[in-house]
Design goal:
Helix content is 47%, strand content 13%. By secondary structure, the protein is an alpha/beta fold. It is built from 27 helices and 21 strands. The chain folds into 3 domains: 82 residues, no CATH class; 174 residues, no CATH class; 263 residues, sialyltransferase cstii, chain A, CATH 3.90.1480. It has a 9-stranded parallel β-sheet, sandwiched between helices. Strands 4-8-5-6-7 form a 5-stranded mixed β-sheet, with helices on both faces. A 3-stranded antiparallel β-sheet has the order 1-2-3. Helix 5 crosses helix 8. The termini are far apart.
C-alpha cells in the first residue's frame, strides 16, 4: 500500500541514482532494459511526468478517487521497447500502444454512431400513453387532480408543434455534437475518452471505473489535466470520476451522483460507452443502472397526492387525535421490538412471534395484519401509511374491522380520517417530508418519521426512535427466492376470496414489478431477487439504522435481501430474556410520547402555504427567464431548476413537498418532448411555451390550496366524532 503522495518508483524516477534497481526507475521491463537507450529514457520520463501530474491533479480535483489510488500498489503491465514504442500486457489481450490507440478509435467510432450507442433505457414510449403520463385524471379518490391537466397540455403542445413522425427523433437529440450528459463505463487506456471530450460539447461527464488498476494505469497515458480543461472549454460543468470494485456500491454511487447534481431524466436515453473487451462487471453496472434509473423516479410524489394528504391532515389535526410529540432520546435495556412485514420469511418465522409475544413489543406493518388475523394473534401496534381511500376500503372489510378495533392504530396524519374510527386507540405520527406535516408542525417541533416507500420503513424508523435496545425484522424480506413466493402465503396477496379492489390492484402491480427484478446480495443466500421498490425500502431502512441506530442492535432474520446495519441472525439463534414487565415498561414509554395537547391553527398555516407557493412561482419564473438558443441551453435551465429543488430552498415550508415531485414529473415530460423535435427553432418555441405551461400549473396549484380550509371543514362536518368522544 502506498502511504506517500507518489508511488515509490516515481520518487526514484525523479531522483535516479546509480544503485537504483531497474524496477525502481522503470516500469516492469525485460532484462535487456537494465541499460536504457536515450529514447527509452525519454519515454520513461514522459510517462512518469504524466503520471505525476495526473496524481497531483487528482489530489486536488478528485480527492476521494485520489485516496483510492493511494491504497493501490501499482503493477505496471507495459514495457518500453528500444524503438520507443510501448508494449502493453493487457489482462485480456496484448499489443502495442499504437494497437490500443486504434482500439480506442474503434470504440469512439462505435460511440459516435447514434444508432450504435449503448443507452440506459429504450426509446420514448410513454409520451403517447396519456394515462401513464397523467395519473389521477378522472380518479374520484383525489380531491382536485389538476396536475394531469398540465401534463396533458405539455404533450398536446408537443403533438401540435411536431405532428409528423419524420420531424421527430427516435432518441433524445440536442444538435450536432451536443449531449447533456455522458456516462463512460471504464477508462480503458483513455483514448476514446479523450476523443469524446474533444468532439462533443457536453454539460456533464461521469467516468465509472470498477477496477482501480485500470484507472491507475490510464494515468500514464491520459493527460487528465488537459482533458479536464478541454471539457471546461467546451462548456462542460461537472466532470466526475467514480471508482469502486463493488459493482452494487458503484451503481449506488452513480445513482446518488445523478440524483444530487442533475435532473434524473438526463440519464434516460443518455449515451454510455464502455470497452467491449472488458469483464462482465462493466455490463453488470450498465444493467443495474438501467434498472436503478427507475429508483430515481420513486418517491417524487404528485401535487394531487399532496393535496389529498394536506386535506386529510387538516381534518385529522382538527379532530385532535393523539400525536407523537417527542421520541425517546435514550436506549433502554431489555426493550425489544419485533417489526413484522408480510414477506415470505414470515411463514417460518411466525413461531418466534408466538413464543415471545408476551415479552416483546410487536409492530404489525400494513398487509401483515391479515396474517395476524388469520393466526389469531394481535400485535401491540398496527401501522398504516397510505393516504388514498383504498386504505379505508381495506380496513373496512368486516373481519378486519372487528379484529383491529382494540389494537392501537399507528397512522400517518395523511390517512383518510374515516380510518381512525376503526380503532378505540388511534395514534398519529408525522411524515418526514410532507405538506400536511408542515401545516401541522410549522415550527418543526415534533418528530418526523421516515415512512416510505413501504410501511416497514415506518415501522422500523418508529422502533429505532422509541428507545428499543434490540429490534428484530421478521417478514421484512425486501427480496425473494427466484422461483419462490414474494409474500407470506397467509397474507392477502394469496387470499382471492376476500380480495378487495385495492388488494387486487396491489397484486397486479407486484406481479409487474417482479418481471423486472434484479439480483441483490442475500441475507443468508448469495443473491435473491428484488424489485426497485424493495431495493429502495432496503436502502431507506439502512439509512434509518445509520442515523438512529448507534446504540441499538438490529437483526435481520429473513431469507431475503441483506440490509446494511442489520445483523443476519437465524431464528434458532434468537435468545430473548425480556419479561412481560419489560414489555409493559416499553409500552408505557411509548404512550408517554403521545399527547392531544398541541396547537392547531390549520387555516392560518394554510395561508402561509399559499404565500410560499407564490414565492416558488416567482423563483421558477426567474429560472425560466434565462435566454435559450439551443437545446443544451434548455438543459441548463432544467439543471438550475433541479438544483433549486434539490437544494431544498423551501424545505422548511409546505411548498417544497407539495410541488417538487410534480415539477420533476412535468419537466421530465417536457425534456423528452423538446429533445424529440428535430428543428432547433421549433424546439426553442416549444421550450418557451412549455415553460409557460409549468408556470400556469404553479398558479393553479396556489388557487387549489386556498380552497382547502373550507373543504376540510365541510368534510369534518360529515365525519363521526373521534373515538372516545
Amino acid at each position: 500500500m502506498r502511504h506517500s503522495s507518489l508511488p515509490s518508483h516515481l520518487h526514484a524516477a525523479m531522483t535516479p541514482s546509480d544503485d537504483s534497481s531497474p524496477s525502481e526507475i522503470l516500469p516492469p521491463a525485460d532484462q535487456e532494459l537494465y541499460n536504457p537507450t536515450p529514447l527509452q529514457e525519454s519515454v520513461r520520463l514522459r510517462l512518469l511526468a504524466t503520471y505525476q501530474s495526473n496524481l497531483l491533479f487528482f489530489e486536488k480535483q478528485f480527492p476521494y478517487v485520489y485516496q483510492e489510488l493511494l491504497k493501490y500498489e501499482p503493477v505496471i503491465p507495459f514495457t518500453i521497447m528500444e524503438d520507443g514504442n510501448i508494449h502493453i500486457k493487457d489482462k485480456f489481450r496484448e499489443g502495442t500502444a499504437a494497437y490500443f490507440t486504434e482500439i480506442g478509435r474503434l470504440q469512439f467510432k462505435y460511440f459516435d454512431d447514434p444508432d450504435s450507442r449503448v443507452r440506459v433505457v429504450t426509446r420514448f414510449g410513454y409520451l403517447y400513453d396519456e394515462k401513464m403520463a397523467a395519473p389521477h385524471v378522472d380518479n374520484p379518490h383525489f380531491y382536485c387532480p389538476i396536475e394531469g391537466t398540465y401534463r396533458f397540455a405539455l404533450i398536446r403542445k408537443f403533438k401540435e408543434m411536431c405532428p409528423a413522425e419524420e420531424d421527430r427523433n427516435p432518441w433524445p437529440d440536442f444538435g450536432e455534437n451536443r449531449i447533456p450528459m455522458i456516462i463512460a463505463f471504464g477508462v480503458g487506456y483513455g483514448q476514446d475518452l479523450r476523443m469524446i471530450v474533444e468532439t462533443y460539447a457536453m454539460r456533464h461527464l461521469v467516468v465509472v471505473e470498477h477496477d482501480v488498476a485500470d484507472l491507475d494505469f490510464s494515468l500514464y497515458f491520459v493527460d487528465y489535466v488537459s482533458l479536464y480543461h478541454e471539457f471546461k472549454f467546451r462548456g462542460g460543468k461537472h466532470f466526475t470520476i467514480l471508482v469502486s470494485p463493488d459493482t452494487e456500491e458503484l451503481t449506488n454511487d452513480l445513482l446518488l451522483t445523478i440524483r444530487g447534481h442533475w435532473p434524473p431524466y438526463f440519464a434516460r436515453g443518455t449515451c454510455l460507452h464502455y470497452n467491449d473487451y472488458r469483464t462482465g462487471e462493466v455490463k453488470d453496472i450498465s444493467a443495474r443502472l438501467a434498472s436503478g434509473i427507475h429508483q430515481l423516479y420513486a418517491g417524487w410524489g404528485f401535487f394531487d397526492d399532496e393535496v389529498l394528504s394536506l386535506l386529510h391532515s387538516a381534518q385529522n389535526i382538527e379532530r385532535h387525535f393523539p400525536l407523537c410529540v417527542r421520541e425517546e432520546p435514550r436506549t433502554f435495556d431489555k426493550s425489544i421490538a419485533f417489526i413484522v412485514g408480510s414477506g415470505p420469511s414470515l411463514d417460518h418465522l411466525w413461531p418466534l412471534i408466538e413464543q415471545y409475544r408476551d415479552r416483546v413489543v410487536v409492530i404489525g406493518c400494513g398487509s401483515s395484519i391479515s396474517v395476524f388475523m388469520k393466526k389469531g394473534i394481535k400485535p401491540d401496534f398496527y401501522i398504516e401509511i397510505e393516504r388514498t381511500d383504498f386504505t379505508y376500503e381495506f380496513m373496512a372489510e368486516p373481519r378486519l374491522r372487528e379484529f383491529v378495533k382494540d389494537i392501537p392504530l399507528l397512522f400517518l396524519s395523511v390517512i383518510p380520517p374515516g380510518c381512525f374510527s376503526f380503532s378505540e386507540k388511534p395514534l398519529m405520527i408525522l411524515k418526514l417530508v410532507d405538506g400536511g406535516t408542515q401545516v401541522i408542525d410549522i415550527e418543526n417541533k415534533y418528530p418526523r418519521f421516515s415512512t416510505g416507500p413501504t410501511v416497514t420503513n415506518a415501522g422500523t424508523d418508529f422502533a429505532l426512535r422509541m428507545g428499543f435496545s434490540e429490534i428484530y425484522l421478521l417478514g421484512v424480506d425486501v427480496g425473494y427466492p427466484k422461483e419462490g413466493p414474494h409474500h407470506s402465503k397467509d397474507s392477502y396477496y394469496y387470499d382471492e376470496k376476500h380480495a378487495t379492489e385495492y388488494v387486487t390492484q396491489v397484486v397486479k402491480e407486484t406481479d409487474v414489478a417482479m418481471k423486472q427484478s434484479l439480483s441483490v446480495p442475500g441475507n443468508f443466500d448469495d443473491t435473491v431477487e428484488s424489485t426497485t421498490i424493495f431495493i429502495q425500502t432496503r436502502d431507506n431502512i439502512a439509512t434509518s439504522i445509520r442515523i438512529h441506530g448507534d446504540d441499538k442492535k438490529v437483526y435481520n432474520l429473513n431469507r431475503g435481501a441483506a440490509i446494511k446495519g442489520a445483523l443476519p441472525l437465524r431464528p434458532e439463534e434468537v435468545v430473548i430474556d425480556c419479561t412481560p414487565e419489560d414489555r409493559q415498561r416499553s409500552l408505557d414509554r411509548i404512550a408517554a410520547c403521545f399527547t392531544t395537547d398541541y396547537p392547531r391553527d390549520v387555516t392560518r398555516n394554510l395561508g402561509f402555504l399559499a404565500d410560499q407557493m407564490e414565492a416558488v412561482h416567482a423563483d421558477v419564473r426567474n429560472i425560466f427567464s434565462q435566454p435559450i438558443k439551443n437545446k443544451l441551453d434548455v438543459c441548463d435551465v432544467l439543471a438550475d431548476l433541479n438544483f433549486y429543488l434539490f437544494a431544498r430552498k423551501h424545505q422548511g415550508t409546505a411548498a417544497f413537498p407539495m410541488l417538487r415531485g410534480s415539477l420533476y414529473h412535468m419537466c421530465n415530460i417536457f425534456y423528452d418532448c423538446m429533445s424529440q423535435i428535430r428543428d432547433t427553432q421549433r424546439a426553442m418555441e416549444y421550450a418557451r411555451q412549455g415553460f409557460n405551461i409549468i408556470l400556469e400549473f404553479l398558479l393553479a396549484g396556489r388557487e387549489v390550496i386556498e380552497t382547502i380550509p373550507e373543504e376540510a371543514l365541510k368534510r369534518l362536518a360529515a365525519l363521526s366524532p373521534p373515538a372516545g368522544e
